[in-house]
Amino acid sequence: MDSKGLVIGNRGGLRDRVGRYLAQWSVFFRGFMAHPKMVGSIIPSSRFTVRRMLEPVNWRECRLFVEYGPGIGTFCRPVLERLSGDATLIVIDTNPLYIDYLSHAIRDKRFHAVLGSAADVERIVREHGFDQADYVLSGLPFSTLPTGVAPEIAAATHRVLRPGGAFLVYQFTAACRDYMAPHFAQIDAGFEWLNILPCKLFWGWKG
Prior knowledge:
By secondary structure, the chain is α/β, with parallel strands linked by helices. It has one domain (about 15-205): 3-Layer(aba) Sandwich (Rossmann fold). It has helices at about 15-35, 35-40, 45-55, 75-80, 95-105, 120-125, 150-160, 175-180, and strands spanning about 65-70, 90-95, 110-115, 135-140, 160-170, 185-190, 200-205. It has a 7-stranded mixed beta sheet with strand order 3-2-1-4-5-7-6, sandwiched between helices. A hairpin with a 6-residue loop joins strand 6 (about 185-190) and strand 7 (about 200-205). The longest helix has 21 residues, at about 15-35. It is globular.
C-alpha cells in the first residue's frame, strides 16, 4: 500500500491542522450554499459513518473504487489508506469547487477527481482504462435529485459494477432503496446514530 503522496491532514502542528480544517469547512460550506440539493448536508459525514460504510469492502480484491459526490474528501483519505498500491480511486462530482479543491489537496497517483455526472459513470470508468468497478460509494441525496436522474444513476451503477461488486449508499432517508431495488436483489441495510444527522446505510450487491 502506497499513500505517501496523500496530503490531506498528514503533517503539521496544531496551527497547520486548524488552518486546514477551516479551509476545508470553507470549501464545503461554499459548495453547499451553491448547490444545497446536490450536497444534501451542511456537515460532512462522521468517522463512524465512514468506518461502517467501508466495513464490507474486500480491499485485497479491489482494483477500482468509485465515489459519487466526494465533497471535500471525507471518504477519500480512508479509501486511499485501505486501497492497495496498484488500485485506483475515481471520484465524480458536478461541483467544480469540490473537484478543484480535491485535485490540489490530494496528491496520490491512484486518485482521479472528475467533474461530471454520476449518470455518466460507465464512460468515465472506460476513459480511465477500466471495464468495470469493484465498488461504488454514494452520498448523493437521491430524494432531491432532478427528475429522472436518480433511476438513471442506479441503473448505470449496476451496469458498471462487476459481479460480486457493491453499491454503497448513505442517506438521511430510505429513498435510494426504491431506486436500487429494481437492480440489486440483495440490499443490506444499517443505521448510524453517530452522525449529524443520523443516517441510513445501504449496501446493494450485484449477483
